[in-house]
Design a protein that fits this description.
Radius of gyration: 19 Å
Oligomer: single chain
Largest sheet: none
Number of helices: 9
Number of domains: 1
Number of strands: 0
Helix content: over 70%
Shape: globular
């Protein structure tokens, strides 16, 4: 069993599909969210890479959860996974992703507006880096996790194709390998570059943070609006 005939090993094939999807589609679809978040928190190159890693960790965790649940239900309860059975889940997951994005954008906006203007950019930068780097970025993880719950077509095809040939645990492993493949993408480098570029304008950091938060809110609203349109089509 393999999704790619040229790659007989299904695990290698799952990783290869994820790598290809990450290079082509995943970066373009996820980068606006992660770049806006990086702008919102005022990250530099190193923090930008770290935030992107945590975001991808959230996505891989969501993929693993989906793969595990599909394996359990299809194996123990003979649940048939199809497009019609996945459609309601996709819809509610999209709503959840939009809401999480809006909440994160609002939290960044409120925090950035409440910060007093500091005429010393270096001290403000050091304080910001100490505050953010000293703990796990739950917001970045939540953003990635909620995004990962919106199952992308290649992952769904991979899991549906694997069900007749694989054991329940295989669905979990295949989903994780696919997620790891997508995580190794230009998005990781671009996240760092975004932080590096935005960090070159310390005097405008507050306004960059406000703009980044505003874009997140708009992206969340657009996600919900598109979901409503598709659901009513």
């Amino acid at each position: 069993m393999s999704l790619i005939p040229e790659i007989p090993n299904p695990y290698v094939a799952a990783f290869a599909v994820g790598l290809l999807y990450g290079l082509v589609f995943c970066t373009s679809s996820c980068l606006p969210y992660i770049a806006s978040y990086i702008a919102g928190i005022g990250a530099d190159f190193r923090k930008g890479v770290t935030v992107t890693l945590i975001y991808n960790m959230g996505r891989v965790t969501a993929y693993a959860l989906i793969g595990g649940l599909i394996g359990i239900f299809s194996g123990a309860f003979r649940f048939v996974v199809s497009e019609s059975s996945i459609s309601p889940f996709q819809q509610y997951s999209s709503y959840a992703f939009g809401i999480v994005t809006i909440i994160i954008g609002i939290s960044i906006l409120l925090k950035s507006r409440s910060k007093p203007h500091n005429c010393n950019p270096e001290s403000k930068e050091n304080l910001s880096l100490k505050t953010v780097s000293g703990r796990f970025d739950v917001r970045a993880f939540s953003l990635g996790f909620s995004r990962g719950l919106v199952v992308c077509p290649p992952l769904m095809l991979l899991l549906v194709y694997a069900i007749p040939f694989a054991t329940p645990i295989d669905s979990f492993v295949l989903a994780v390998l696919f997620g790891l493949g997508t995580a190794i993408s230009p998005m990781l480098l671009l996240g760092g570059v975004t932080g590096w570029l935005l960090n070159k304008a310390p005097l405008f950091r507050k306004w960059i943070s406000i703009v980044g938060a505003g874009i997140l809110i708009v992206l969340g609203i657009v996600t919900i609006a598109n979901t409503i349109i598709v659901a009513n089509a």
